[in-house]
């Protein structure tokens, strides 16, 4: 972002390169990580969490290579609140370390085998140590959604006193819904002056909703991943948060949404995780319409059925012929082939298109439409004399049985 750009009301800290890569089976090469970092920065993502130094020398080298790109985005490293993890980050030019520690009694006791007092003393000691090394600190509160809120507020004070700048509220197991997120973040907001970051998981399909609720509650930062990649069901999708915040909350994150499809495709390729056809914002089919009433409405004025303008993503509405099409779309499809249908032909051809689509599980091709039309013309020519013989006059539809 250049110096003149006003600071957005919510700052995106994208973790595609950390939590995104934690998605089971996903492993980016160094080149892929660099390319993703570049593209995230190119669309204007202001903060990138780029990896876990404790994973070893190779991970650290890639993280330092990303730092060496001198991107306009601020960089974060993810560390356990643990001496060895802090040692491992030394020499990597990130701006901030996320020092993560479980804060629920469940994880403090049954994962770490410790107690609350130990967590508190670790925070004081290691946040100070990280500050002395010159890093900004975000206290990563793992499993915050299952933590005692009084204890969490107390830890915010402990972290602030030790020099932390930010607290990350992690819904690690993805069990919150937006109303509870709103309450919890409001409570933290009222209690602490720290920056507050929401880290949501999509186990119940609520990661984006929870992230938007957190912003409403006073979160200053949000953790996202491209395509919603991430542990288990994934994290809050960058593209959903950017456009959701803009259109549903009136908050501009400063991201160039037209660059998002390319970013999404890049992460899709590098992760090997196909983006679903109906995946909001970036799915291939999310601006494609078939239903006759919708298509007719769109052709009259696209605002009739447009919640999000595809142009914001450099995309367009696509109209397809299918089982649910009506005469307007059929006529348009034939016009594109240079054919003006007569009134009686549309219902007959619509039935035939429905049958074809049901069997082929796809829209008819131009050649197939042409064949249906030519067939109908031939049948009509054969039928006209019979009708004339029988009725003594021309029928408006020579193929009544087909049209019914
Ligand atoms: C919710 C999250 O997303 S947290 C991020 C999770 N991400 C990852 O785990 C991906 C990268 N992880 C790794 O490469 C490895 O797990 C490493 C390098 C971090 C650690 O590897 P190992 O030392 O072989 O340990 P392993 O992963 O089997 O076990 C984790 C250890 O970290 C401890 N630990 C977990 N979280 C924390 C924490 N926040 N602070 C301190 N210790 C922690 C566990 O208690 C366990 O320690 P133990 O050996 O004393 O029981
Ligand atoms: O503690 C943090 O930084 C968040 C870690 C995480 O990814 C999670 O809890 O889901």
TrEMBL record:
Catalytic activity as recorded in UniProt: acetyl-CoA + 2-oxoglutarate + H2O = (2R)-homocitrate + CoA + H(+)
Domain (Pyruvate carboxyltransferase): residue spans on this chain: 10-261
Keyword Aminoacyl-tRNA synthetase carried by entry: no
InterPro entries: AIPM/Hcit_synth_CS, Aldolase_TIM, LeuA/HCS_post-cat, NifV/FrbC, PYR_CT
Annotated signal sequence range: none
One GO process term, biological-process aspect: carboxylic acid metabolic process
GO MF assignments: homocitrate synthase activity
UniProt KW keywords: Acyltransferase, Nitrogen fixation, Transferase
Gene3D superfamilies attached to this UniProt entry: 1.10.238.260, Aldolase class I
Function: This protein is a Fe-Mo-cofactor biosynthetic component.
PANTHER family assigned: HOMOCITRATE SYNTHASE, ISOPROPYLMALATE_HOMOCITRATE_CITRAMALATE SYNTHASE FAMILY PROTEIN
Family as reported in the entry's similarity comment: Belongs to the alpha-IPM synthase/homocitrate synthase family.
Full protein name: Homocitrate synthase
Species whose genome carries this gene: Parathalassolituus penaei
């Amino acid at each position: 972002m250049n110096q003149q750009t006003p600071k957005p009301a919510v700052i995106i800290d994208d973790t595609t390169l950390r939590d995104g890569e934690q998605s089971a089976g996903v492993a980016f090469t160094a080149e892929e990580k660099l390319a993703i970092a570049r593209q995230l920065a190119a669309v204007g993502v202001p903060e990138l969490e780029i990896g876990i130094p404790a994973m070893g020398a190779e991970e650290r080298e890639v993280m330092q290579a990303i730092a060496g790109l001198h991107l306009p985005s601020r960089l974060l490293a993810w560390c356990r609140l643990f001496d060895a993890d802090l040692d491992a980050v030394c020499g990597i030019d990130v701006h901030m370390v996320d020092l993560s520690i479980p804060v629920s009694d469940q994880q403090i006791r049954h994962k770490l085998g410790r107690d609350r007092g130990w967590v508190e003393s670790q925070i004081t000691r290691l946040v100070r140590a990280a500050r002395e090394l010159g890093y900004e600190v975000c206290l990563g509160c793992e499993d915050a959604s299952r933590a005692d809120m009084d204890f969490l507020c107390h830890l915010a004070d402990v972290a602030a006193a030790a020099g932390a700048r930010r607290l990350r509220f992690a819904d690690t197991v993805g069990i919150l819904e937006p109303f509870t997120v709103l309450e919890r973040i409001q409570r933290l907001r009222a209690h602490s002056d720290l920056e507050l970051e929401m880290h949501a998981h999509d186990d119940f399909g609520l990661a984006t909703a929870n992230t938007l609720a957190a912003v409403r509650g006073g979160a200053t930062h949000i953790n996202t991943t491209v395509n919603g990649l991430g542990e288990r069901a994934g994290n809050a999708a960058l593209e959903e948060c950017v456009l959701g915040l803009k259109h549903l909350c009136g908050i501009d994150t400063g991201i160039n949404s037209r660059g998002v499809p390319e970013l999404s495709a890049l992460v899709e390729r590098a992760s090997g995780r196909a983006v679903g056809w109906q995946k909001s914002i970036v799915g291939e089919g999310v601006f494609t319409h078939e239903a006759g009433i919708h298509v007719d409405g769109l052709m009259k004025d696209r605002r009739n059925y447009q919640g999000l303008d595809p142009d914001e993503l450099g995309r367009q509405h696509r109209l397809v012929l299918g089982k649910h099409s009506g005469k307007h779309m059929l006529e348009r499809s034939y016009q594109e082939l240079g054919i003006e249908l007569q009134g009686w032909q549309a219902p007959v051809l619509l039935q035939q298109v429905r049958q074809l689509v049901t069997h082929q599980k796809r829209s008819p091709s131009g050649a197939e439409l042409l064949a249906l039309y030519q067939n109908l013309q031939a049948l009509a020519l054969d039928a006209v004399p019979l009708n004339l013989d029988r009725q003594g006059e021309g029928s408006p539809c020579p193929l009544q049985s087909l049209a019914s």
